[in-house]
Design goal:
Oligomer: single chain
Number of helices: 4
Order of helices and strands: EHHEHEEEEH
Shape: globular
Structural class: alpha/beta
Radius of gyration: 16 Å
Mean pLDDT: 88
Strand content: 35-45%
Largest sheet: 6 strands, mixed
Distance between the termini: 23 Å
């Protein structure tokens, strides 16, 4: 999947310029950037480490879309990205991040995504918003809001 960003990406911050521990917002930003890098690289092993053992996962259920289902463990959450790659055409997958907002332990990313379903050859696209919460250096909440209708239509033969 290709990810572009209108907000830019920087290396994770591990300490403030004064040598103190990072603020909650800095720590959250660093983990989310690491999540995005692992996601882009398709590094499921790293994603398992980034997700907490238990995750508040929300992605509107859609029985016609094989990679969209309830999940609650870090391993299940990381597996979603592998399942998505199995069912879509990697060369056609795109996501652009237009906003990356951080407030303490919460981060919200907004943007646009698109792709093609391998089985049907049909494309989908639409806006998305992703809310993540980082606690103890790991993602504990992953709520994704996307155009589920577009994706379901692309999965329908």
């Amino acid at each position: 999947m290709s990810v572009t960003s209108a907000v830019g990406a920087t290396a994770p911050t591990t300490a403030t310029p004064t040598g103190n521990a990072p603020s909650p917002a800095e720590a959250t930003r660093a983990v989310v950037q690491e999540f995005l890098a692992a996601r882009l690289a398709g590094d499921t092993g790293r994603l398992v480490q980034i997700f907490a053992e238990r995750v508040d996962w929300m992605l509107a259920g859609n029985p016609g879309v094989p990679w969209i289902r309830p999940r609650s463990t870090g391993a299940e959450c990381a597996a979603q990205f592998t399942e998505l790659a199995e069912h879509t055409v990697p060369e056609d997958a795109r996501a652009s991040v237009t906003a990356f907002l951080v407030d303490g332990t919460d981060a919200v990313l907004t943007g646009h995504l698109s792709g093609t379903v391998r089985a049907t050859g049909k494309s989908f696209e639409g806006p998305f918003a992703l809310r993540l919460t980082v606690e103890g250096g790991r993602i504990t909440r992953h709520h994704l809001y996307e155009d589920g209708l577009s994706i379901a239509e692309a999965c329908t033969p």
